[in-house]
Design brief:
about 120 residues, alpha+beta, Arc Repressor Mutant, subunit A, 5 helices, about 10% strand, elongated
């Protein structure tokens, strides 16, 4: 698996994480496998609605589903979360560099103003 996310992968991941219920499902499944029926009991929505949320997360690569007997177990994929976190860290670094550059320009301008 490449560490570089494609634009489509980025879109799917952040679309999936834009919803509070889906973020909660990821958090719950980071601790271990959870059945969809068990997850559904945690929310004020139908089983089908929870299945749809899980499907969005699965398409984004944030969770996997595995059938065991009659149950479908959901498990978080920490690798995808790590890759998304690294992308956010790169954006943070870029913005910190830009903010520092702006601060340097302003400091130079203020220094020039005092020298006059």
């Amino acid at each position: 698996m490449s560490d570089i996310l494609t634009e489509d992968e980025i879109d799917r991941i952040f679309h999936a994480l834009a919803d509070a219920t889906r973020r909660d499902i990821v958090a719950r499944t980071l601790g271990g496998d959870r059945s969809i029926s068990g997850l559904a009991q945690s929310y004020l929505m139908s089983f089908a609605a929870v299945q749809k949320h899980v499907s969005v997360l699965e398409r984004a690569g944030l969770v996997t589903k595995e059938r065991r007997g009659r149950e479908q177990l959901v498990r978080a994929v920490p690798e995808t979360i790590r890759r998304a976190n690294e992308l956010l860290a790169r954006y943070e670094s870029l913005w910190r560099e830009r903010a520092a550059a702006i601060e340097n320009i302003l400091t130079e301008e203020m220094t020039k103003g005092h020298d006059r």
